[in-house]
Amino acid sequence: MSAPGNRGRRQAEAERNDRALLQAAREVLAADGAHASVASIAARAGVGIGSLYRRYRTKEELFQRLSALSLEHWNEAAERGLADDDPWRGLKGFITAVRGVRPGIAVAGRRHHRGHRADGGEQRQGR
After folding, report:
1. Nearest partner of 96 among 117, 80, 113, judged by Cα
2. Using CB atoms within 10 A of its CB, is residue 69 exposed (0-12), middle (13-18) or buried (19+)?
3. CA gap 78, 93 in Å, rounded
4. What is the Cα 11 distance to its own chain's centre?
């Protein structure tokens, strides 16, 4: 087997792993919040913790990537809605496109400091 063929396979596997990690991170983050463990994310994705850390150096970096993807999705949906000749249909299309995106994902990267909420308030101690 040639080296370029192996490289292509490794790259395809890395891309599959990245998609699996991002989906797993969405799911674990939705269930556990910003304190979700990277070990849980890797396990849900079916990859080793090393695969996660090769792609994302920190949990915050992974959360930032999720936030960027969410923003891209919302922006694309907004652009499609604004481009529609019928404003009502454009708004309806926008809402339909973004209603499945969990709003907590975009804020999660800002909640990683223990004891502080994303809105700047203090969390109550003694859960």
Report:
1. 80
2. middle
3. 9
4. 21
pLDDT tens-digit series, residues 66-86? 999 999 999 999 999 999 999
pLDDT over threshold 50, residue 117: no
| Closest C-alpha to 89, from 102, 80, 100 | 80
Q: Which residues pair with 116 in a beta bridge?
A: 122
Q: At what angle do helices 38-45 and 3-32 cross, to 10 degrees?
A: 120
Query: How is residue 7 written in tokens?
Result: 């490289």
Half-sphere exposure of 13 (CA within 13 A, CB side): 9
Give pLDDT tens digits for 41-54: 999 999 999 999 99
Alpha helices in the chain (DSSP H): 3-32, 38-45, 49-55, 59-83, 87-98, 103-108
